[in-house]
Amino acid sequence: MSAASNVNSPVVFTQDELGWVSWIDPLPEAELTERHFAGLVDRSRSKSEYFRLLVRDPEVLEARTKTDKDIFYNVADGLPRAERELAAAATSRHNGCIYCASVHARFASTYSKRRDDVQRLLDEGVGADLGERWNAVVKASVALAATPIAFGPDNVDELRRAGLDDAEIVDVINGASFFNWANRLMLSLGEPSK
Amino acid sequence: MATKDIIDTLAGIEPGSALDTIRARRLQARDNAQQSYLSLFEPIDASDFSLVERAAVALFVLGLHREPTVAAFYRAKLAAIADGARLVEAIEFEIVRGETSGPYGAFPAGPLSVENKAGLIYRVSAERKADLGGRLVAAFEHAHLLVFRPRDAAAADMKALLAAGWSNTGIVTFSQLVAFLSFQVRVVTGLRVLGASLGRTANAAVGA
Asked: How much is the ipTM here?
């Protein structure tokens, strides 16, 4: 088991690339079987400590990975990718997942070309004023992250006023909800490293 | 049009409805949210995390979310498992003791420390420990952390689970289960709220 003191952990939210170190034992690459590779979905994920840890339960990892990919990568219709990533970054910022926020803030910047606004979300937090549409997405994500869940009719009205249709609102709900899954794994099974 | 899955059932989405049609556009996500549920609650191998433990943790997690429809679903699931029904009373007792509002917790020491938010550090009551047993006591205390203050998680929490008899693989599946339920209950609540607003819009259109 790694000791926290061995890792150079980031202490602020960042768009830089971070590493991630597991607190319990991932499966060694040499022990992976075809059942595990099916769970990894992408064979290259066997290089990642995080995925080699989660692949201890290959069936759950496979279903989770396929859920994740469709919510974020299926852009045939619905919410632009940038705003799905914004929902992921805002959720991660609010829950406090520095690692998840770094990955999805980078994606939000790449797809939106609004790197400075994304950085303000990280620096100032979920109260940063990012314009009506992004504010509505961030606010909905924050309401969904609360326990008990605080998402209500006002969030839906606000998203509609910002121009989102019902299918796009479902993408916000799915994207933000998914990061309540991802954040809890990343935060509790290991820690980020610089 | 698809047959109803767990999310449809819990969110009250009917086949052929507007939300059913929207969900059908993300068929892989829809199918795999269901498959995640099945893999967690009807696993091919439950040797590291028993079925009754899975349902017990699920009831505790949903109770903490105060979503009665979803909690009732997992309560029924636990009650239907041999050896599960006897746990319901103790879990309901612990849910009340664990109720609070999240997320809270501490950030790594540094500039973010000003955002630290203190809150309940839940521990199972002395009088219910015997009912639950050592593995579930450790699981509930960690599940409460995952639900309300995931940013507080530390390597020491893994040690506590290992010391209570959880294997590495058991910890992974248990963490997935709590994290998945955190996703599922939010999708259900989000879709239910959106569905209710569609009803309002439809009614308004009929009125106009």
From this structure: 0.97
